[in-house]
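[Automated response] Your request has been received and processed.

Submitted sequence:
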Amino acid sequence: MLLAHYCLFLRKIFLTFRTFRQYYKMKAFIISIGEEMLIGQTVNTNAAWMASRLNEAGIEVEEIRVITDDREAIYNTLLDSIKRCDLILITGGLGPTRDDVTRDVLCKFFKSSLELNQQVLNDISKYLKDRGRRVSDLNRDQAMVPVNAEVIRNPLGTAPGLWFREGEKHCVAMPGVPYEMKEMMSKHVIPSLVRKVRSRHILHKTVLTQGIGESDLAKRIENWEKNLPDDVQLAYLPSTGIVKMRLTTQGGDLQKLEAHLNSQLMALQGLIPQYIWGYDDDTLEKIVGRMLVQQGSTISTAESCTGGYIAHRITGVPGSSAYFTGSIIAYDNRVKEEWLRVPRKLLKDRGAVSREVAEAMALGVSELLKTMYGIGVTGIAGPGGETKEKPVGTTWIAVAMQGGKVVSRKFQFGDNRERNIIRAGNAALAMLREQLAGCGQQPIIKKEQL
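Generated structure:
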């Protein structure tokens, strides 16, 4: 009798531990199905979006795998993923054509059979009728769903989502069309999962820096990084002209997590204020746009080697018409002379790629378009056009301000044309931000804004 009670007690402990683990440590496996992603025809944006939403919900993504529309590949991937993770999310292969085999494989994997679901058929009929189309045999076949799957209705297409449960394991299959998948994830899948994991949070904060390389940055913050608490992880994410640092922590109390992470961020900002320009989803063009609006200022650009790239980024921000007046793409020296009033003698004596010409371009465009700030960019993007004194990647950038003040800077970006243009755009916007912020000496993020 005592032995039976003891065994029951141990079982309760085991179940409590399992529930606790599930409560706090749900792990996900994302499977993207489609040959178009494997041959580079389509970019797998679905997986990135899903991973981001899952992290916000407190669910860790262990792996993302892209596979072809092949029955054996799908089955074997399901077999592998369900052993390792609590949640499997699948996109793709639910369409009406012969190459869409995901539903059939799921039916086999979960030992089920198909039956006509009248609600799904009604949804498909309404969707097609609203678009002036009739239900075909292939569309009707989409209303055949596995009997042991929960149906996720699809108001934006003809393929329903399917949710299988096997004990504590969950497998959710959704269409590969991004807006259909996002509708299902946002309205049904994520809310259901949040109720399961409840108070678990995974908190990320990404620090955006510009003007310093990854190795130099790591050296400057070496002591800070060494003293990070064990529950805060740091990752470097370098890209063209920008280095991002992502800090991650996780736990149950969101307010404590935020305070914990923010204390580390404030310490970091105190070390490198001149290089930090934003956080998370900020972009340089959004940052300078907000600053221009706050100051009631306007900006114009005169671009040579960047060919309008800076103007493109500025105007990509909604509401930019409030502060952006226009741009002159002064690719030829005649445009520099006739429109921007750059003296011919200056072009001849100093060359188009020079500090003096960049400054004259910045002043010229601000005067021509009557803006408070002007950006001038001139350089050798490559692959040709270099000289011994001015190799490919040599770029001069100037920012002009009211009253005739101009600041300029020389850059040596490298030998790749595309990267040179992106780097020049980042550098120009960063220089403008510095001037708007008072040479970058003021913290751009206050403690209460983190």
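Summary generated for your ticket: Confidence is low (pLDDT under 50) at residues 8-24, 439-450. The CA atoms of residues 262 and 450 lie 6 Å apart.
If you did not submit this request, please reply to this message.
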